[in-house]
From TrEMBL:
Transmembrane segments: none
GO-annotated molecular function: DNA binding
Name assigned to this protein: YbaB/EbfC family DNA-binding protein
Taxonomic source organism: Amycolatopsis alba DSM 44262
InterPro entries assigned: YbaB-like_sf, YbaB/EbfC
Cited Pfam families: YbaB_DNA_bd (PF02575)
Amino acid sequence: MRDTYEELVTGIETVRNETADLRVSAESPDGLIIATVTSRGELVDLAIDPRVYRSPASTALAEAILDATRQAAANARHLVFARLRRFLPADATFSTTDLDLDPFLVPMNQALSADQPASPDRRTEDT
């Protein structure tokens, strides 16, 4: 059981590390805006084609930026979900799965550490 537990933690940490530098982009339908996000959906780059300024509709521009950013974030979440799928219950769905791994990994790592016998350099000398 412990081996399975360790394999699960190792596998999930591997996915987290693999996706840490993931960058996903999405383009607005008109192709004038490209938003790039991290695996967590954080906006890290925004490219706006100068042709967008031909129409001074700031509300439309803001909506196009938000739409492209949301689409990039959704694409990133789908990629992370696909990579985590093998560790999830069979009935897990994209819409109901929390893809933030830290709240899951921290207690698991603490449990693994607590279950480890003290190594010679961690033992205190009582005798």
